[in-house]
Amino acid sequence: MTSISAEQIRYDRDHIWHPYSSMTNPSPVYPIVSAKGVRLKMSDGRELIDGMASWWSAIHGYNHPVLNAAAHAQIDQMSHVMFGGITHEPAIELARKLVELTPAALDKVFIADSGSVAVEVAIKMAIQYWHALEKPEKHKLVTIRNGYHGDTFGAMSVCDPINGMHEIFTAVLPKHHFADRPEIGFHQAWDSADIASLKQIIEQQHHELAALILEPIVQGAGGMRFYSPHYLKAARALCDEYGLLLIADEIATGFARTGKMLACHHADVVPDIICLGKAITGGYMSLAATLTTTQVAETISAGGAGCFMHGPTFMGNPLACAVANSSLQLLIESDWKSNLQRIETALKTGLNPASEIKGVAEVRCLGGIGVVELSQPVDSARIQKMFIEKGIWVRPFGKLVYIMPPYIMDNETLNTLTSGIIEVLHRYLK
To answer: Which cofactors (predicted)?
Structure first.
């Protein structure tokens, strides 16, 4: 299809619920008919530079010949087969790659079908672990404010109840513990007072705490905040001291987005459970994974249930696993460290001028993430239209105008993207 009709757009508006949208007052949606490289082609023929990598995922851009070939080859074999009682090469090789890319202790792999499910799996692992050790009272979680872990119920219960978009469900969600968010930035001098709130909760409540769950280094949808690696180190130490598992939600940060293969590597921290997703298939389809240690896996398996109590229908989907294998191989074989340094430099150079614009509170960049935080929440519909007019795709939320471009974006295109953002902000904030 090369175009989308006005009738189809009307049907979309009347019948399709888009993410975080209203059916009575829907935000505009922009029809896309194809995508290639780092550009999205609109129904009217215009092209947009994609600054979002489809919510962190399309790290190699769109229509990549290697990933296309992997999908074609696998679909001719089998697109799906149940994972219960069956295995296949794409899943085995994906598990092998994930074990190689993550810390050595993380050697047991549960292949899930979305990021939110990976978080649900991690939470269930932590709770079932303590139940197997005959400590069922350790069934609560602790996390930090401004966190975001997904939209399913278990994941929502550890999102910030105020800033995490799920306040309306507070009364029906499991009650967990929330520590103050880290305030010391990634490059700032460390002060142990920054972790005092988390320390106090763990000291007082550790008898009922199964795990600490957090997004390492970068808090995503809760505010695109970058915090000190020392906080992560101290959090790991607290978990060790008081007997909590550490769950690292690396769904958004994994696979080099922060400049390290995993955000945990910034602090040389090894979690007990790690969640991966988003970029795992290069944005081709939904897939995720939860990895844990032999000790956690064998403890769960030796418990009363005799197994881990989870099994999605599309777990280990061969098509998704095959594309993930090719995507991860592309990343591993590339000079990704230098490339992410290049992107970070370009983002800093391109976005720093925004700090001089009245109404901008802060500009911050880390790896392949660039954030311009405004003093007031943005009018998303108004500013998005302005971005479209500049030929760029940026999806702001709250006070944030942020980008995380595909890793293949060259410097000239990065400059066009960031200069377009600066021009729009000048117009929008005048």
So the answer is: pyridoxal 5'-phosphate
